[in-house]
TrEMBL record:
<feature type="domain" description="Amine oxidase">
    <location>
        <begin position="18"/>
        <end position="104"/>
    </location>
</feature>
<dbReference type="Pfam" id="PF01593">
    <property type="entry name" value="Amino_oxidase"/>
</dbReference>
<dbReference type="InterPro" id="IPR002937">
    <property type="entry name" value="Amino_oxidase"/>
</dbReference>
<dbReference type="InterPro" id="IPR050703">
    <property type="entry name" value="Flavin_MAO"/>
</dbReference>
<feature type="domain" description="Amine oxidase">
    <location>
        <begin position="112"/>
        <end position="362"/>
    </location>
</feature>
<protein>
    <submittedName>
        <fullName>NAD(P)-binding protein</fullName>
    </submittedName>
</protein>
<comment type="similarity">
    <text>Belongs to the flavin monoamine oxidase family.</text>
</comment>
<dbReference type="InterPro" id="IPR036188">
    <property type="entry name" value="FAD/NAD-bd_sf"/>
</dbReference>
Length: 366
């Protein structure tokens, strides 16, 4: 029999990424008390939109997720419409380049309009969606620099211990990558072994990747009839795309095809030199004239990655809800793109997971 919820205690949301903030906004709309606890000094989680230092006029660029697919991703569509966010189509016009070896020039392939799925980006980066969600929340409910260290179930209450205090909750929504949960949070009583195994078996999306963005005064490659899309067997970047804002400056972003331990051993400075060498090889001497280079190695982000995540994922894993743990999971819920029924690894998955979990929590209040 399900225990009666204690309505005097708030729902505690652990993690202020997209999933955690969406969960908070839905609870807020229902008038349910909540607190969001975030270990970082910022909101957004793996959403990270940044400017080139001292050059804000160049725009914001996404070092995390960048686009979404509006034909299939209804939760994203709804939120973008609700907040009136501006979007623009990801640029894919022109030829792609395929780089086989250093000893031969890259091959050009014309892209048909059907070859690249229609995708949209947000003006101001994906951070604009995160900021819009946060703007609807009472600021006193959002606590940054607050890392949860343990969660203890106590009848119809849950005691959440941070690095500074204890807080009692009616329910807890954990909106963190499952592997981070398993590594960083102690549970009392202990997690059942089947649930713990499921935590470990869910790789964290992006955790093994690093992303680099080269920013220019303009997207000069478009004048060459190039889309900016590159597939390379040479590297160091394995995949490159146009990352230019809707107007103004130009940018190219790429993912590395080498494991985290290799990137770390090479070092950031030399790695970025190799990146510029590759971009110049592909796009000509104008690629040397960068206004700035932005870099984020997610494998070094301790709030995202564990040691097991060091190898970059080559394709989307078969994500889905966490399995096992009942009746241990009496009033603890898990949200995030790694636990979504569909669209795992996408922004859409993070939103759908949050919406599904909050519906479960709300049912306990009625």
């Amino acid at each position: 029999m399900e225990k009666q919820i204690n309505r005097d205690d708030p729902v505690i949301i652990v993690g202020a990424g997209l999933s955690g903030l969406r969960a908070a906004s839905l609870l807020s709309a229902q008038g349910i008390k909540f607190i969001v606890l975030e270990a970082r000094d910022r909101i957004g989680g793996r959403v990270l939109s940044v400017e080139v230092e001292d050059k804000p006029e160049l725009g914001k660029f996404d070092l995390g997720p960048t686009w979404y697919w509006p034909r299939y991703e209804m939760a994203m569509n709804r939120l973008v419409d609700e907040f009136g966010l501006q979007t623009f189509e990801q640029f894919n016009e022109g030829s792609m380049l395929f780089e086989r070896s250093r000893n031969e020039p890259p091959q050009k392939h014309d892209l048909s309009t059907e070859s690249m799925e229609y995708s949209l980006r947000l003006v101001g980066g994906v951070q604009s969606l995160v900021d819009a969600l946060a703007s609807k929340l009472p600021q006193e409910a959002l606590h940054l620099n607050t890392k949860v260290t343990s969660i203890q179930q106590d009848n119809n209450r849950v005691k959440v211990q941070t690095d500074g205090r204890s807080i009692y909750a009616s329910s807890v929504i954990i909106a963190l990558p499952p592997r981070i949960v398993e590594q960083d949070i102690t549970f009392i009583p202990q997690i059942p072994s089947d649930l713990k195994s499921n935590f470990i078996d869910k790789p964290t999306w992006m955790a093994g990747h690093a992303k680099v963005i080269a920013v220019y005064d303009s997207p000069f490659w478009r004048n060459q009839g190039l889309s900016g899309f590159v597939s390379s067997r040479v590297g160091p970047l394995q995949e490159i795309h146009d990352a230019s804002p809707s107007t103004g400056s130009g940018a190219l972003f790429g993912f590395f095809g080498i494991p985290a331990e290799v990137r770390i051993s090479v070092g950031k400075e030399q790695l970025l030199e190799l990146v510029l060498e590759q971009l110049t090889r592909l796009f000509g001497p104008l690629a040397k004239e960068v206004r700035g280079i932005l870099y984020k190695d997610w494998s070094l982000d301790t709030h995202t990655s564990v040691k097991k995540d060091g190898e970059p994922l080559r394709e989307y894993p078969n994500y889905g809800p966490l399995l096992g743990g009942k009746p241990w999971l009496q009033n603890i819920y898990f949200a995030g793109t790694e636990t979504a029924y569909g669209h795992g690894g996408h922004l859409e998955g993070a939103l759908q997971s949050a919406e599904s979990v909050v519906n479960e929590v709300i049912r306990r209040y009625h």
